[in-house]
Design brief:
mainly alpha; 3-stranded mixed sheet; 23 helices; about 5% strand; transmembrane helix; ion transport; ClC
Length: about 575
């Protein structure tokens, strides 16, 4: 296992180097060509080309689809026994390089984690590792990827624990440490320092500024919720704009180009802008903008930074919704640094107190990362590592915990897994739900059951209950939608009496427990508990399909448990 985790880490780290080098090479090449051609505001045009090329590659070479976001890793862990497609080992590198390298307003870290996870998963599949070890090697690839991308080995380990392996045993810790250390070592040996986000100067904590850090943490919590919700809304809107993927890409990237025209710092990952803010040189981010002549006006700069921070979620939503590939890790650092700068600069300009702008800028990154990804430990140690020390550990702990608490209050799930967790698809810390969620209702539901309609009579009810083992009868409308159900326990007191019963056929019909045939098993079990029943009717497009029972679900749960032990 130790040898395997190191080999996976080397593969993942080399993939990160290829990805970052390719993305930065694409960026340098396009900017060089544009400077030779002397094209004004070329940074507004490049994202359109990059997103269109990404869509073209996906359609022509990747079977028309590519999975985005760390949610795909969670699905692999919870529902697919740690198995990821082979194409993820190269698809993310190509597509995210084209998108982000040509100015798409997203990050490379999410593609990096998926690539690392795919290397770990496919290595384990090739050598026939069991489920537990396969999942561990998947996490090792993720840890190595994060460690390489930021030269932050501790953050790599913590990210794998907090986000991927919520239910981790002590034996998993050493492989994660080895993988992360290997990734960081390769980053030091090979990566150009300009590709890394790092701040190598002394940062110290003045306890007199504690109240302002608390304020930053509170604001970061609410900004996290704002960013996550607006991003999801924009991504969904543009993603459902048209069935024609190329037309959708043109419209979405065109809107992104307009934003970048007015706010050039939205171009690409935006790490250069973060460094300018941390050095209190924010005037540089107005370069090539319509406000470049105001780059010495502190209030104009503050307003520009504030608006840029607020619309970053729109830019990222347009990038990913229109067909580009990337992640939200870098945008969270972007928004956090801008928020930290705004808070510090506003305090300084009003004359309340002179607070260190650089400190607030880097601490703000931890605050947003914690709030958006619900990973406070990763946020704390990532920023501590990229700043070269632990001088800011106290404010990092303060802002990360406050931001996390507020964001968790309003958004139960983290940004990347919100949509799938809300559907009950992923709960990696709960083994029972993982096993239940592997059950596909569409494959196991029972179809053969006698039904009635509104034209039937009590005599028909008696006939079915007398001649079959059914203890409920679905009552359907003419269009096969469910009107209700006749439950044997409910009608038994009167149904088999003589004609003296004064009950009508309609009075025998009660409300039916119903869900879609594509619902997850966890949701079915929950409905059974709420309705105090042991069966649920299943529908497809509102039409009756069949039913599933509690005993049937538990039977398949036990089968999944046996398979897990065998694997």
């Amino acid at each position: 296992m130790y040898l395997s985790c190191i080999l996976v880490a080397i593969s993942s780290a080399l993939a990160v180097i290829v990805l970052k080098t390719f993305a930065h090479s694409v960026l340098e090449f396009t900017l060089h060509v544009s400077s030779l051609l002397k094209l004004p505001y070329v940074t507004s045009i490049l994202p359109i080309i990059g997103i269109l090329l990404t869509v073209l590659v996906v359609q022509k070479f990747l079977d028309g689809s590519i999975e985005k976001g760390t949610a795909q890793i969670m699905i692999a862990v919870a529902k697919k026994s740690g198995i990821m497609p082979k194409k993820q080992m190269y698809a993310q590198i190509i597509t995210s390089s084209l998108t982000v390298g040509m100015g798409g307003s997203a990050g490379l870290e999410s593609p990096i984690t998926i690539t690392g996870a795919a290397f770990g998963s496919n290595y384990a599949q090739y050598y026939r590792f069991k489920y537990k070890d396969r999942t561990l090697l998947l996490a090792c690839g993720v840890a190595a990827g994060i460690a390489t991308a930021f030269n932050a080995p501790i953050a790599g380990v913590l990210f794998a624990i907090e986000v991927i392996l919520a239910d981790m045993s002590v034996t998993a810790f050493i492989p994660l440490l080895l993988s992360s250390a290997t990734g960081a070592l390769i980053a030091n040996l090979t990566l150009n320092k300009s590709m890394l986000l790092s701040f190598r100067y002394a940062l110290g904590f003045d306890y007199h500024n504690t109240i302002f850090y608390i304020l930053l943490g509170i604001l970061a919590g609410f900004v996290s919720v704002y960013h996550a919700r607006l991003f999801r809304k924009i991504e969904h809107k543009i993603g459902s704009f048209s069935k024609n993927v190329y037309w959708r890409a043109i419209v979405g990237s065109g809107l992104l180009a307009i934003l970048i025209f007015f706010f050039p710092t939205l171009f690409g990952e935006g790490f250069d802008g973060i460094k300018y803010l941390a050095n209190d040189e924010a005037g540089f981010i107005l370069n090539n903008s319509l406000l470049e002549s105001f780059k010495t006006n502190q209030w104009v700069i503050l307003g520009f930074v504030t608006v840029t921070m607020l619309i970053k979620s729109i830019a990222t939503g347009l990038t990913l919704g229109s067909g580009g590939n990337g992640g939200n890790f870098a945008p969270s650092l972007f928004v956090g640094s801008y928020l930290g700068y705004v808070v510090a600069k506003f305090i300084n300009l009003l004359g309340f107190k002179e607070v260190p702008v650089g400190n607030f800028t880097v601490v703000g990154m931890a605050a947003l990362l914690s709030g958006l990804f619900h990973a406070p430990l990763t946020a704390i140690f990532l920023i501590a590592e990229i700043t070269g020390g632990y001088g800011l550990i106290i404010p990092l702990m303060l802002v990360s915990s406050i931001s996390f608490a507020i964001a968790k209050r309003y958004d139960k799930y983290s940004m990347d897994i919100y949509t799938i967790a809300d559907k009950g698809m992923v709960f990696t810390s709960d083994k029972d739900q993982n096993l239940l969620n592997k059950i596909d209702l569409f494959e196991i539901y029972i179809k053969n059951i006698k039904t009635l309609n509104l034209d039937n009579s009590i005599a028909d009810i008696k006939e079915i209950f007398s001649t079959t083992t059914q203890y409920f009868i679905p009552v359907l409308n003419e269009d096969q939608t469910i009107n209700g159900i006749i439950d044997l326990d409910y009608v038994r007191p009167f149904i088999f009496k003589d004609a003296a019963s004064d009950k009508s056929y309609a009075e025998c019909i009660t409300q039916a427990p119903t869900l879609s045939v594509f619902a997850n098993a966890t949701k079915v079990i929950k409905l059974m508990e709420e309705k105090k029943t042991d069966y649920v009717l299943l529908t497809k497009e509102n039409k009756f399909m069949g039913y599933v029972t509690e005993s049937l679900l538990l039977e398949h749960y036990r089968d999944n448990l046996k398979k897990l032990r065998i694997e």
